[in-house]
Amino acid sequence: NAGVTQTPKFRILKIGQSMTLQCAQDMNHNYMYWYRQDPGMGLKLIYYSVGAGITDKGEVPNGYNVSRSTTEDFPLRLELAAPSQTSVYFCASSSRDRSRGNEQFFGPGTRLTVL
Amino acid sequence: AQSVTQLGSHVSVSEGALVLLRCNYSSSVPPYLFWYVQYPNQGLQLLLKYTSAATLVKGINGFEAEFKKSETSFHLTKPSAHMSDAAEYFCAVSLTGANSKLTFGKGITLSVRP
């Protein structure tokens, strides 16, 4: 299993541009998450999904959109990039198997710079 | 709502010395607790987790943590630090319901001196 994969690894955007960060998992997990990581701030939840067709906002959703058309994929869309969105973005997934204790599996991250 | 406090942002130890990284949590119900490690330019990797079984939890790479309900703590320890332990460490808490989201602490950077 590849686990959780993310593309691209790095990206530089100009202010006002848009892009989609891709995330896929091959573990048949129902739950998927998007986080952003800023220095000294830990991870903040942007959006999450409990299954195909169901998404909900996390702690910092402004400026982002998501969709979940399949179990495997959970793309994150930035419509009008702003310097405040410069960050490292992580996608994660978890199983609904209660014995796993809500353990989340993380992708390698996408480092985004907005100039 | 739940929260995690990791005091301090940086810990430095000598190789072979004890590693102690502190984590205190706040939760309205018995929680699940996690420690994740992040090596430079990588994603987060699970070190260990507490899911209401044994209070002393052993993880990978010689790390362990003890759940102390009376102190609302879940401190991470390793008897002897190795250079390869240098990384950022995150404590996280979730409620025990299905799909309860993780709340992360701000992280602690561990440096290991030769």
Provide structural commentary.
The complex is a heterodimer of chains A (115) and B (114). Chain A has 115 residues and is mainly beta. Chain A has no helices and 11 strands. In chain A, strands 2, 4, 5, 6, 9, 10 and 11 form a 7-stranded mixed β-sheet that branches. A 4-stranded antiparallel β-sheet of chain A has the order 1-3-8-7, with no helix packed on it. Chain B is mostly beta strands and 114 residues long. Chain B contains no helices and 12 strands. In chain B, strands 2, 5, 6, 10, 11 and 12 form a 6-stranded mixed β-sheet that branches. A 4-stranded antiparallel β-sheet of chain B has the order 3-9-8-7, with no helix packed on it. Chain B has a two-stranded antiparallel ribbon with strand order 1-4. The mean pLDDT of chain B is 91. Chains A and B meet through strand 5, strand 9 and strand 10 of A and strand 5 and strand 6 of B.
In short:
The complex is a heterodimer of chains A (115) and B (114). With 115 residues, chain A is an all-beta fold. Chain A has no helices and eleven strands.
